[in-house]
Amino acid sequence: MNDSPLLPDTLAPASPALAQPCPIRDILDRIGDQWSLLVLLTLRPGTRRFNQLRREIDDISKQMLSRTLKQLEQDGLVSRTAYPEVPPRVEYQLTELGHSLLTPVAALVAWAERHQPAVNAARERYQRATER
Amino acid sequence: MNDSPLLPDTLAPASPALAQPCPIRDILDRIGDQWSLLVLLTLRPGTRRFNQLRREIDDISKQMLSRTLKQLEQDGLVSRTAYPEVPPRVEYQLTELGHSLLTPVAALVAWAERHQPAVNAARERYQRATER
DNA sequence: GGGCATAGGTCTACAAACTGGACCGTGAAG
DNA sequence: CTTCACGGTCCAGTTTGTAGACCTATGCCC
What we know:
Low-confidence stretches of chain A: 1-16
CATH class of chain A: Mainly Alpha
Shape of chain A: elongated
Oligomer: homodimer
Mean pLDDT of chain A: 84
Helix content of chain A: 55-70%
CATH superfamily of chain A: Winged helix-like DNA-binding domain superfamily/Winged helix DNA-binding domain
Strand content of chain A: 5-15%
Order of helices and strands of chain A: HHEHHEEH
């Protein structure tokens, strides 16, 4: 399937780096799910409770927050502590691993802040170009 | 199709901490959509054609690839060049902005590679803990 | 005692997003 | 003449996410 007689691709063939059983893919799938990064960033300042997170992120549904936290806990990025009190209290905080992830994530956030004007300009340019 | 130029995007109303006028949210929503990062990484070695990308990423649907590329182009991260030949040829490549984004992304990928064992260990630990 | 609030979820309909395959037009290969 | 390939788009069906009701168990107020 991959060898086409006419295909003039003088470029490098498929890179094996991003194939299926690839750790990058695996981790990227986790942190690239829209909410995970946001939850991690929200936990950066310190311990948070469930509804506190929900209020801070604001447009995440209970179910997604619950699911996201479960995954993050599963991946060892967040720790969960439930106190068997009667109005239940559950606290989430970053593990050391979670903190270590925030270093590259912070770089990403810095990029976002820095290049936001460029992105916005590109968007406007694109819109003007496609309008006519 | 009918696109009104005044159509507001689908961002939700007010949110406290990582609120709306927050570029982090905005950019994170783009790069956190599972495919964008993967496409950018695949374009890193050089120019790629549409189906070439599709083959390299392999489990992305045509529609999502098309949509993702359109967004990336819109955000000024990728440039698109269509040659009016008869078997149509369209080439995509990273812009300078796109390349600049890959720096922090590379840091993230490095983290993923480095900490993959820790994450896997955490997953196994979690599974054993919840199984009983 | 009865009613309500509170915290952390889960469950359930419903809506939005994504998928895989058909399809398009044109030219070249078999 | 049929088949294939290019870069998409369109449609139907499946998966994923949402909002909101509901649950448990206690303490507070009246």
